[in-house]
Please model this.
Amino acid sequence: MKIAIVCYPTFGGSGVVATELGIALAKLNHEVHFITYKQPVRLNLLNPNIHFHEVNVPNYPLFHYQPYELALSSKLVGTIKKYNIDLLHVHYAIPHAYAGYMAKKMLEEEGIFIPMVTTLHGTDITLVGNHPYYKPAVTFSINNSDIVTSVSQSLKEDTMRLFDIKKDIQVVPNFIDVSQQKTSFTDCQRDVMALPEERIVTHISNFRPVKRISDIIDIFYNIQQKIPSKLLMVGDGPERKPAEQKCKELGIKEKVIFLGNSNEIDKILCFSDLFLLPSERESFGLAALEAMMNKVPVISSNAGGIPEVNSHGISGYLSDVGDVIDMSENAIKILEDDTTLERFKENAFREANKFDVNEIVPKYVALYEGALATT
Ligand code: GMT
Model:
């Protein structure tokens, strides 16, 4: 098949999933065309089946807001025609499903019929898409996609509750490639980050308010009072500065390392002992799954789709949003002895295997085949 993928090229989970999906499809000998405004951060172009087409938006002073949707839909029309693309898969409804629908309609005028699969990722539904300014356009784009998928059962339920949806939504969970887990667990260079007797606690995100960064600092503050430890904060966003300030005020500045955005997530997770994800909302929690694949147990909230990924008492623990005491106690329970930590690490890895690329990508391929059969 020839598949066009539209996504955000940044560090966010939706872009990562779209990129990994494209890579997996290319390995299965499908021809994959990424169409976005920048090369996706995790995309390695050294595969003859992978192509990247940049969407350019010319800057015109009349426009207060440059019309990205217009440029994207035009680019889609051109690329789909030039490469005889069979199917369009857009990740994140806003504005991708909207632009994709316009491209579909323009192509129909020329007698070209192309199915569009829309994957909902989370904030496109629960935060941004639900805003009254966007809601009618998001509802329309979802209802006019040929196939709609969501990354968790929880997100499907949120979508049905928040929007007037006339389409069936298929749940296709996010995935990881367990075979990519090459880093040897004995050669993690953890001494670069911590003393031998210290545990390493990690958080990775875009540092948006929804991640409850302040809770992470509170939880770590409690942990380090009982257990020698370091906290690695990976990523960047609006809550980073306040978090750095809070660490100073609590007197734990020396124990918390802010690493910024990183392309070396596997290396960081390799020497991590625990992952914190106390989010207010989370449709899935790909970062938690990536941690589990690297044998890192997860202390998380029970928001959204996280319970579909992190199994309570097995791969980590779940607590109510904001219950930092419970999260701290659970973290200490896992970290305080080597045997317990080792058990949780093995469990986390075993649970992560349920989301291996070989289990999940065939589900997308089956949906593509179904969509093509009815076009
Ligand atoms: O919040 C983020 O981490 C970024 C956001 C995005 O749009 O990329 O992530 C969403 O999609 C990810 C991939 O499907 C999910 O794993 C995240 O849970 C989801 N974030 C939220 O729902 C807040």
